[in-house]
Amino acid sequence: MTLLTVRRDGDIAVVTLDNPPVNAISEAVRKELFEMVGQLDADPDVRAVVLICAGRTFLAGADVREFGKPPVEPHLPDVVDRLEAADTPWIAAIHGAALGGGFEIAMGCRFRIAVDSARVGLPEVTLGVIPGASGTVRTPRLAGVEVAVDLVTSGRPMPAAKALEAGLVDAVVSGDLEREAVAFARKALAADLPVPVSKRPLAPMPEAFWQAARKAAAKAGHQAPLRALDSIRFATEHDFAEAMAHERETFLDLRGSDEAAALRHIFFAERAAPKPAALKDIAPRPFGTVGVIGGGTMGAGIAGACREAGMEVILIERDAEAVARGLANVGKIFDGAVKRGKLSKEGRAERMAGVRGSTDYAELAQADLVIEAVFEEIGVKRAVFAELGRVCRADAVLATNTSYLDPRAIAEGLPHPERFIGLHFFSPAHIMKLLEIVPTPDTADDVLATGFALARALNKMPVQAGICEGFIGNRILKRYRAEAEALVSQGVAISEIDAAMRDYGFRMGPFEAQDLGGLDIAFLQREGARAEGQDVAETLGDILVRAGRKGQKTAGGWYDYAEGDRTPQPSDAVSKLLAGRVTGSRDLPRPEIAERLVGAMAAEGQAILREGIAQAPQDIDLVEVHGYGFPRWKGGPMFAIGKS
Ligand code: T1G
What we know:
Layout: E1 4-9, E2 12-17, H1 27-41, E3 48-53, H2 76-84, E4 90-94, E5 97-99, H3 101-108, E6 111-115, E7 119-121, H4 135-143, H5 145-154, E8 158-159, H6 160-166, E9 171-173, H7 177-189, H8 207-218, H9 224-237, H10 240-255, H11 258-272, E10 289-293, H12 297-308, E11 312-316, H13 320-339, H14 345-353, E12 355-358, E13 369-372, H15 378-391, E14 397-400, H16 407-411, E15 420-425, E16 434-439, H17 445-457, E17 461-464, H18 473-489, H19 494-504, H20 510-517, H21 520-531, H22 540-546, E18 559-560, E19 569-570, H23 572-578, H24 590-610, H25 617-627, H26 637-640
Parallel strand pairs: 2-3, 3-4, 4-6, 5-7, 6-9, 10-11, 10-13, 11-12, 13-14, 14-15, 16-17
Antiparallel strand pairs: 1-2, 7-8, 15-16, 18-19
Bound molecules: (2S,3S)-3-hydroxy-2-methylbutanoyl-COA (T1G).
Residues 21-22, 24, 56-57, 60-65, 76, 97, 99-101, 104, 123-124, 127, 129, 131-133, 135, 268, 271 line the site of (2S,3S)-3-hydroxy-2-methylbutanoyl-COA (T1G).
């Protein structure tokens, strides 16, 4: 035994698993746990066993790194059955998170107790599989079908207090978990033991329940939640053994699916992104006090996100009226959280107490970090940094939120250019997870490390990008839109292109999305480039904007919109406007349309890699998934074409 240690507390055995970093259930853990049950059953002096974990968490589920390999005995369902059939009752003592196979192991125990900060969950569907060790068969027997359907099809963990209410755990404790668990075991031994979970009754549910649950599960957009629901339903209509066989078959079928491979790819990419090897031993600079220049949508979003992460925020605007508007914009963000029940009124007041507005840059004299989020015009931005260069500490990190301008041009002439960096947030900045981190050639390593540390503090997904027009995400977006317009020019219907991308898994197609966001934003960028003498070809979008069709805000863009109705309607006006640019009409199967457009994104991604703008293909996938709505279960454009 190397991963399990046992100590005796009188007639209670305490088994501790220590398999860092998250006590994932590897083949070795399954083997040792299976043997330990037999070993302790054979000890007449042991009357109960507490299973507890060292480190940050209880068992966090099957070791995802083993998913690509053939399953090896003992299989996890057998380990769970072995625990449940033990003569000596086991008590799972949960801290951190009991997830997936970890919670299935806890259900094999006779009792489950959790510290108040713990969570329990069955997140398998987020990895494109379903629980494979009785999660869809024991959970409904333990806590009822509704709880099981919610836990399994959403994949969302449940906090300990709610889990207690739902019957997923038997007690919630605070203080020393091991001591509480031993005391709980002693008390439990004094009474009759509960029936093992697999032996508990499970009644079928009315058809209407399943129809509603199916409709909800389908919203996820991919198959795993629906297959998980089917497995729970099967368990309510068959005996335990048949249900376990059905669940295992479904699990093994999904485990080898493209969807599961894509979701595992994103899972590991998300965990690698915040920890670039090159920054491993570099300490970031402090960022306890943050200045934000500009209180518009972006600036307020950034200020709200920083305040939510506990930073002191100073919001700078050009005059008192703009300051008031900016603070009101930040307040609205917290009002939203209060309305959703995520924040109390006192919490809102505390948040806003940490945000002060001013027109005086001198207020930034002690700021650790200043993020500029003003109008996307080089002159305006350079004026801001000229002022910041005068008033801020020499070691204060100065960042621009520019989407399209060259950060080097913004920082030209700035004293201590090593402290300057691009931090490209996505709107709404307090919600969108993607943060493109754009160093200039002068940016110091510890300033780059500060960008990544800020991302971690804001719970954002950081991706380092090199300098080019649009960095990674907006450059690919431009190529994606151009390819979609090329299909329109070849006679493919606008509505078919959007439908194809929705079928692929996007919430919206490229044309619907432009109508929602406004065609004029990209139009103004192109016009700006043309004004600078760049040779920018006329796009179909240009034609529409010049005709006053900017999208939903003008009741017409790529589509028409009836008064007060946001449903896109194919537009005869657009057909007439584009008549000179469209040759004939072409029916292309939707999968082919999607393949064309995803292929264009990936081709641009390969150019981005060749130019060193992105560090790795999985970074491009993360940008697309976290910034542009690329369906996670497709893994991103580079994964989709097998390049990641
Ligand atoms: N397997 C392997 N490695 C894992 C892992 C797992 N399940 N979970 C995390 N890691 C690694 C991760 O890659 C990172 O590695 C390190 O641990 C810290 O992770 C049969 C089949 C547990 C809440 O889906 O949700 O059970 O980068 O940065 O923020 O029905 O990790 O340091 O080298 O995320 O403290 C179900 C997934 C599996 C849980 C901790 N379980 N993990 O969060 O740390 S399927 C899950 C998490 C299953 C059964 C089925 C989180 C966490 P490195 P981290 P964290």
